[in-house]
Amino acid sequence: MAEWVYHNCKVTINENSLFDIQVKRIHEYKRQFMNILYVIYRYITIKEMTPEERKKVVPRTVMFSGKAAPGYLNAKNIIKLINEVASVVNNDGDTKSSLKVVFLPNYNVSNAEIIIPASELSQHISTAGTEASGTSNMKFVMNGGLILGTMDGANVEIYQEVGEDNIFIFGARVEAIEGLKEKMSTANPEDYVPPELKKAIQAIRVGTFGEKDLLMSLVSTINNNNDWYLVSSDFQAYIEAQKKVDETYMNRAKWNRMSILNALRSGKFSSDRTIHEYAKQIWNIKPVKVTDALG
Fold first, then answer.
1. Cα–Cα distance for residue pair 100/14, rounded to 1 Å
2. Pick from 97, 92, 105, 96: nearest CA to 23
3. Residue 284 backbone class (left: φ over 0; alpha: ψ -120 to 50; beta: rest)
4. What's this model's pTM, rounded to 2 decimal places?
5. Structure confidence by residue, pLDDT tens digits, 149-174
6. d(Cα 157, Cα 137) in Å, to the nearest integer?
7. Cα separation of 124 and 32, whole Å?
8. Cα separation of 243 and 51, whole Å?
9. Dmax of the chain from CA atoms?
10. Domain 2-270 adopts which CATH fold?
11. How far apart are CA 253 and CA 197, in angstroms?
12. How far apart are CA 170 and CA 148, in angstroms?
């Protein structure tokens, strides 16, 4: 994976860092925006540390990939922000040993064959109630990756199979979403945007990451009583979940145990089981013994 990243992105990444990956179609409900806002907050936090404190930070390589629909401006702006953040973070002498950001080009099946097995943490952080049932999270689990995610889509089934101690779950549950949206639509933005998120937004506002007018138009999708995907509401819980990821990663025996259990407990998601269940419950067909040409 490190070789692939260097070959395709010309970025040298630390093979001993935590490989933190979010690969999927770029969309506001999938909240790549929340992920990169957290990366900005993490970057600022590391910058404010002393050199001694930085030595204790779990090094991370945060990787994104996915495609935006041709006319989806906000999705394209999210990609723009990720690349602008990468340009700053990866060239900062204070942080480049503890944080790297990479947007992986041309996400497809062939590239996924390299990316998914290399992932240690994969993010599936859509707002609860918005993901029908994506299956990429199953692929990561089968390869021993741990999930940081919400109780949405197939994360719910994975949670049931691997157990709550082997997955990092955060955020509002689906039954609370409508109430939170209604509350946020009339609240003062100063009241619902947490200070950590304000810090990240301010860095964008002052031009730390390039084209501030363009990027602030993206920020305006969450801080004008129109945060329909609850980035602000879930942000502090997301930070706490990220702290738990760091703490767990420092205990490699615990992390490796969780990784192994994820792989072992993912049998339910095999194609064999899926097709058999479809055949029985939906298609109403029975298995037929197949013989060779000689009978």
1. 9
2. 105
3. left
4. 0.93
5. 999 989 999 999 999 999 999 999 99
6. 10
7. 9
8. 20
9. 77
10. Rossmann fold (3.40.50)
11. 33
12. 8
